[in-house]
């Protein structure tokens, strides 16, 4: 059977389809009904004579000519779904709605391609086949679309992978178990356990639906329990129990709502003043909108293209005024320029973010520490798209506003830091990275390449009336920067960099040192 | 707070005020009163999002912090670290230890029982959960009630027996303290001690924060000298720097009989303040009226001064 959906170009390579359609056109004129038999003949696979084959080819060529010259008008009469025992018909038909809008054969073939892709993206079928059959004989110029699906035999799937989540600011290893299509609505249930490099763990249960109440975009929901351990850097531990709902998820836009009970504790009882003041319970009810436009050719080694991402968050959307009220905005702009030799490319990136509380007396209120920006970490700025996050050479939460911790009489552990990094309300980073292949083929084959980079970034506090002390000149004077070079080794799970960084400028108390560093990143 | 680095500013971080108390939490109030008795100038800051923490109250000065869950409590830690010690010569006295045991164990147990079980947590909303959303406050309320019952060793089987024991001990403690105190200003001669801080905090909290129907409150009100002691110390040490004077405590035992069924005591506090304001305004009004009459008569009346004096006498 012809399966035009698998071919990207509008003209399918199998000629079997054409004689049928041409016969349709002929029957428009002649009014004879023979195509059903023709169809069955082809199904049976009876050996055809050489003359038949030549006749078919001639007819196919004439159809190709006609299709190239003019659009061949055709209308979809019916969509027939076969092979679905559990999955509801309307779930499949909703994904192939695009077929009904096609008015010509060319459009229909393109639409079949799209429909096939949509159905495969539901992730609940092992195989999808779309066939264009001729319509009922009394309605000329129509076609029936037959969709054959093979549902996944084993609904359970286990997956292990590495991800970089913008919130965690570091790579995480995630294992998940998925149960697909329990109720036949294309629903996918998953339980996952994620462990991040920064000692954060998350246990979650999620459910996703391809369509919810007629909305065109998938609906995802997730209940999670997460802990993040920032004791070493900021003397607090964050625990959250929450529900997040993905309301809109399309190519460019994403809208999600998150409600969580968040608890900040300090088991070590050594926190600095700002952190101490914020320990306790909070209810976060926030709406997050992300606009993403990524035209780069790769997210792990971009050599051409540009991307822009903007994330806006508003917290405190609840009738109760005692929920956490904050505004957060991040933008990230990247540009990659190919240089032509040794697959070299110049990557530029600028990212910025600002967060502020709102409500009564917002100027003197402190912004919530988990919503602030923290720079530094073992991820590469080239790969972490989503806002100011990383700088080569600076350790996790290693720069920015900091405060002295509580004095402890007996200093048993002499190597612990004495300052807490409390984060900034405004952060700006910028980087430039020149990547190039090595001359040796061995490296090129494995994707190992080198790069030379420079980056700069800074943070400042604005809340609690500290915006009065903020001046642009002081902000620019205290900018941190570093340069370096290194080797990039892409593996199947992540992108590893081995770099030598030289810190050009840092401030007192920053945790940064010139030397060799490794970073691990996954595509975000 | 901004001048931390230049001068040693002392700050006590406690739970929010309510019930006309500077801090409504019964664990934070002793520390506040202790610092006031010691006449140490300090700032008061609030943490209203951590009702189930045992770190509060904490005392900080620069990078020095004294948490309540270390070294026996904030007051003990302040004594040990030499910040302020009111008990320097009292600790050797045998009575000191026995009174301390009485106050810190029996009275504290009775207070914990009364807040979480006896009055079913009516007052806890204002003390602990005023700034938390409803969902969180409900869950934390159940958690804290459960923990309090555990701490007091109350189970379904021994609930009644334990309640009787706690109230009996409280009565005996009040009796002993009342006898010991007499009409003295402080528990020990004429100098304040940490035990005065604990006792004063206990009495003030029970009278002002617990509802009128509270059994413990009724038991306390039987000892009028304890109430007078609390009122005296409150007006001398707690209201000296505060701007809005709170109503006198003695109005409570006289206005309400032992087994009163009237529900609220808080509106009564406001009403007496309003009454005072009203009386003041009434006095001003009368004086102004009198002055107006005098001026009118002197300007308009002319010669009949005997009649004017007669009218004045009438007023």
From TrEMBL, chain A:
InterPro entries named among the record's database cross-references: Bac_surfAg_D15, BamA/TamA_POTRA, D15-like
Keywords, comma-separated and alphabetical: Membrane, Plastid, Plastid outer membrane
PANTHER family linked to this entry: OUTER MEMBRANE OMP85 FAMILY PROTEIN (PTHR12815:SF38), SORTING AND ASSEMBLY MACHINERY SAMM50 PROTEIN FAMILY MEMBER (PTHR12815)
Lineage, top ranks: Eukaryota, Viridiplantae, Streptophyta, Embryophyta, Tracheophyta
Main localization, broad class: plastid
A GO cellular-component term linked to this record: chloroplast outer membrane
The protein's name in its UniProt record: Bacterial surface antigen (D15)
Positions of the UniProt region annotated as Disordered: 1-53
Pfam family, one: Omp85
Limits of the POTRA domain: 74-151
Residues of the Bacterial surface antigen (D15) domain: 181-519
Cell compartments where the protein resides: Plastid, Chloroplast outer membrane
Organism superkingdom: Eukaryota
Biased composition (Acidic residues): 24-44
Organism: Arabidopsis suecica
From TrEMBL, chain B:
Cellular location(s): Mitochondrion outer membrane
Its biological purpose: Involved in transport of proteins into the mitochondrion.
Alphabetical list of InterPro entries matching this protein: Metaxin1/3, Metaxin_GST, Mito_Protein_Transport_Metaxin, Thioredoxin-like_fold
Positions of the Metaxin glutathione S-transferase domain: 170-232
Domain (Thioredoxin-like fold): residue spans on this chain: 26-120
GO cellular component, one term: mitochondrial outer membrane
Name of this chain's protein: Metaxin
Compositional bias ranges of the Basic and acidic residues kind: 267-277
Record CDD domains: GST_C_Metaxin (cd03193)
Keyword annotations: Membrane, Mitochondrion, Mitochondrion outer membrane, Transmembrane, Transmembrane helix
Keyword Mitochondrion tagged: yes
UniProt record similarity statement: Belongs to the metaxin family.
GO biological process terms held by the UniProt record: protein targeting to mitochondrion
Membrane-spanning intervals of the chain: 284-303
Top-level taxon of origin: Eukaryota
Region annotation (Disordered) ranges: 240-277
Pfam families (UniProt xref): GST_C_6, GST_N_4
Coiled-coil features, chain-numbered ranges: none
């Amino acid at each position: 059977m012809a399966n035009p959906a698998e071919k990207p170009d509008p003209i399918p390579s199998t000629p079997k389809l054409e004689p049928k359609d041409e016969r349709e056109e002929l029957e428009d004129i002649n009014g004879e009904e023979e195509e059903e038999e023709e169809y069955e003949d082809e199904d049976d696979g009876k050996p055809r004579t050489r003359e038949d084959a030549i006749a078919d080819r001639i007819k196919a060529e004439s159809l190709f000519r006609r299709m190239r010259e003019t659009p061949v008008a055709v209308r979809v009469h019916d969509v027939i779904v076969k092979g679905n025992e559990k999955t509801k018909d309307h779930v499949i038909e909703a994904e192939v709605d695009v077929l009904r809008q096609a008015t010509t054969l060319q459009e229909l073939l393109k639409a079949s391609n799209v429909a096939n892709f949509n159905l495969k993206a539901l992730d609940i079928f092992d195989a999808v086949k779309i066939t264009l059959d001729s319509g009922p004989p009394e309605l000329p110029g129509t076609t029936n679309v037959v969709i054959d699906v093979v549902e996944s035999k084993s609904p359970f799937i286990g997956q292990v992978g590495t991800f970089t989540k913008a919130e965690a600011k570091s790579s995480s290893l995630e294992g998940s178990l998925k149960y697909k299509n329990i109720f036949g609505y294309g629903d996918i249930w998953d339980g996952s356990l994620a462990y991040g490099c920064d000692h954060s763990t998350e246990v979650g249960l999620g459910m996703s639906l391809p369509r919810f109440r007629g909305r065109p975009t998938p609906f995802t929901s997730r209940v999670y329990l997460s802990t993040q351990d920032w004791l070493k850097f900021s003397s607090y531990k964050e625990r959250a129990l929450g529900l997040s709902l993905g309301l809109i998820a399309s190519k460019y836009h994403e809208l999600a709502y998150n409600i969580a009970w968040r608890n900040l504790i300090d088991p070590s009882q050594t926190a600095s003043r700002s952190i101490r003041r914020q320990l306790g319970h909070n209810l976060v009810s926030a709406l997050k909108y992300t606009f993403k436009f990524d035209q780069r050719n790769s997210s792990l080694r971009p050599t051409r293209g540009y991307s822009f991402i903007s994330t806006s968050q508003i917290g405190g959307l609840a009738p109760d005024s005692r929920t956490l009220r904050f505004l957060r905005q991040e933008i990230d702009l990247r540009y990659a320029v190919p240089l032509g030799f040794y697959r070299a490319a110049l990557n530029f990136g600028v990212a910025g973010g600002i967060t502020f509380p709102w409500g009564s007396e917002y100027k003197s209120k402190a912004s919530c520490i988990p919503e602030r920006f923290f720079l530094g970490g073992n991820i590469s700025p080239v790969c972490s798209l989503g806002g100011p996050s990383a700088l080569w050479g600076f350790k996790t939460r290693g720069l920015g506003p900091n405060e002295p911790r509580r004095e402890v009489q007996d200093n048993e552990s002499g190597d612990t830091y004495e300052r807490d990094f409390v984060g900034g309300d405004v952060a700006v980073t910028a980087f430039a990275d020149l990547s190039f292949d090595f001359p040796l083929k061995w490296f090129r084959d494995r994707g190992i390449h080198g790069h030379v980079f420079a980056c700069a970034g800074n943070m400042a506090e604005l809340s609690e009336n500290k915006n009065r002390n903020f001046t642009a000149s002081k902000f620019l004077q205290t900018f941190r920067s570093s340069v370096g070079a290194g080797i990039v080794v892409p593996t199947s799970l992540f992108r590893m960099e081995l770099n030598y960084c030289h810190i050009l400028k840092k401030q007192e108390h920053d945790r940064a040192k010139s030397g060799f560093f490794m970073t691990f990143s996954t595509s975000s | 707070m901004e001048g931390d680095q230049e001068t040693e500013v002392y700050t006590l971080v406690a739970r929010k005020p309510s019930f006309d108390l500077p801090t409504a939490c019964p664990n934070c109030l002793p520390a506040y009163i202790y610092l006031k008795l010691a006449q140490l100038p300090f700032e008061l800051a609030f943490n209203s999002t951590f009702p189930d923490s045992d770190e509060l109250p904490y005392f900080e000065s620069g990078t020095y912090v004294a948490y309540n869950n270390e070294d026996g409590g904030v007051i003990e830690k302040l004594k040990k670290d030499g910040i302020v010690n009111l008990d320097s010569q009292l600790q050797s006295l045998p009575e000191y230890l026995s009174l301390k045991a009485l106050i810190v164990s029996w009275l504290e147990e009775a207070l914990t029982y009364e807040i979480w079980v006896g009055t079913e947590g009516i007052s806890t909303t204002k003390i602990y959960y005023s700034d938390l959303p409803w969902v969180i406050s409900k869950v934390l309320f159940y958690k804290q009630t459960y923990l309090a019952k555990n701490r007091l060793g109350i189970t379904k089987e021994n609930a009644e027996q334990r309640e009787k024991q706690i109230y009996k001990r409280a009565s005996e403690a009040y009796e002993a303290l009342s006898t010991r105190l007499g009409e003295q200003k402080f528990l020990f001669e004429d100098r304040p001690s940490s035990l005065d801080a604990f006792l004063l905090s206990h009495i003030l909290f029970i009278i002002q924060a617990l509802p009128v129907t509270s059994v413990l409150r009724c038991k306390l009100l039987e000892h009028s000298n304890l109430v007078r002691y609390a009122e005296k110390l409150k007006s001398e040490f707690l209201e000296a720097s505060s701007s809005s004077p709170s109503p006198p405590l003695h109005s409570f035992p006289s206005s309400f009989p032992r087994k009163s069924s009237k529900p609220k005591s808080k509106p009564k506090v406001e009403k007496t303040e309003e009454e005072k304001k009203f009386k003041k305004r009434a006095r001003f009004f009368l004086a102004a009226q009198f002055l107006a009459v005098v001026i009118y008569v002197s300007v308009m009346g002319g010669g009949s001064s005997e009649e004017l004096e007669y009218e004045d006498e009438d007023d």
